[in-house]
User: What shape does this take?
Amino acid sequence: MLYLYNLTSEYQASPLGLDEQKPRFSWKLKSELEHTLQTAYRLCIDGLWDSGVCRSNQSVFVEYAGPALSPFTQYRWRVMVWDNHGRQSQWQEGIFETGRMGTPWGAKWISAGQDTEACPVFEKEFHISSPVKKARIYATAYGMYDIFINGSRAGESYFAPGQTSYQSRLQYQTYDITKLLQPGTNLISVTLAKGWCKGRYPFQKHTDFFGCPENSVLAELRWEDEAGAVTVLGTDKSWRCTSGPILFSEIYDGETYDARLEQAEKTSHEACELDLGFDNLIAQQCEVVTVMERIAPVALLTTPKGETVIDFGQNMVGWAQFTVTGCAGQEVVLSHAEVLDREGNFYTKNLRTAKQTVRYILKDGTQTYHPRFSFQGFRYVRVDQFPGQVDLSRFQGLVVYTKMEQTGWFHCSEPLVNQLFDNILRSQKGNFIDIPTDCPQRDERVGWTGDAQVFCQTAAINMKVSGFFNKWLGDLVADQTEEGATLIFVPSMQEFQTSSAWGDAATVCPWEIYIAYGDRRLLARQYPSMKAWVEYIRRQGENEFLWNTGFHFGDWLGLDAQQGSYQGATSEDLIATAFYAHSVELTHRAAEALGYTQDAADLKTLHQRI
Assistant: This one.
């Protein structure tokens, strides 16, 4: 039997809110016969377009070539294939839904009008007079946000709208809320945190490192009744702003939550409208960050200092969720760390200034909690305060990362090698929280380009990272300087430093993703950036065939570094020029793959001369 499975549109299964006029479709073949190959396909979309029978083995990124797609519309597509054994598959069906596709927003940017540590909550009551057939929310923020409809959370994502080069690219998300609405009175509630965009950051003593406007949110509800009538409700000054139960939330420092404030009477004021514009808004480009795994703790320890410490048995990134019973006003305080010191005590010096502390103030009764706008990197949790006896059954580790499918496995007869592979995989998960970072625990966690280019190929073997890197490489282009320099971390936070090996992410990552997934559109989009980086290097050296000037990290963290230095002994000029040659070679390969004949010839000559 010839069977089709794993149907995707633009990297995703059944994507919601796709802003692409020419989406591409992919599928996989399954057969009980060996050496089965596709020889032809036929692709149809809702009677809108029919490819006809195409004699082709292409089964990834088959591009739509029909009439213009409409916004806010769900499309069904189906595909069948023929194989080299003369067999024809059954039709297999997939769906995708378009997003705004440039439709003007029926909403205003709103803010609390003041900067406080507490997370403001924006609320709006609205009435629905007839049953809802379909309902969506389109939302984004300068900061982080989440949405509740009638007390239920919209979607499974956390840390929306994600970290991007905000002035150029701010993602909006689409949520299906059809089942959350009801005839009669409804309540929407949006909580806004500072997040990456407006919170504190390393290397900066202020919070305006992205040059963003004030902490603010934009949201538009659209619902359709059974008769097809569409109602639009957007954020504006009619929304009320209140103080919520999250008293403090920062990426590095943790979260403080007062459960007593969930139902308390609160004063509210009119939200402030802001004229911030919409030109930088783009649809969500990759899978969301969400809870991907749950881990039970393995031990309850008492350290030599008398500290009560929970051991989760492995390093993880996310939250230590707990269930607690007590009286209003009692507190739970948890501190997070990766390691114990050599005496077996709780150790946090490697976190530098990151506090990684969660504080929860109880309401009456039994309650369960985890943070919403902060994440921790840890194996050990010190219980600084907890009502009653600490019981491991009341704790659970929630592992959070971008929703990537595992695609690579390794197993051998040596347990230590298997553990090494497991460690690598867990490191990838912990450092792929919306962007590729260097570490998930201390006061850094930024998109170092050097780390990304070194690990990109391995990442694509271990997990499906096509959408993840598609999104991040868009920010790499947005942050590239007019001179063509690629920066040492992306998003750049107004830091304009570059270095060999770090800046070479501009060539290495697009090529590795192309090799892994065959995405010519991505390669073509990144090619001008690849070429600009090569041209930038060409202008730096004493001649156009060497890179022997400027700052470089060199062999960073080399084991042969001198005391007090992080740089290994290998010549920086040698490393820089070697990477120069490598980037030229990869750009030459990209030019060949894209059919840019003259560029390919010029780059081949340049590579030989380097």
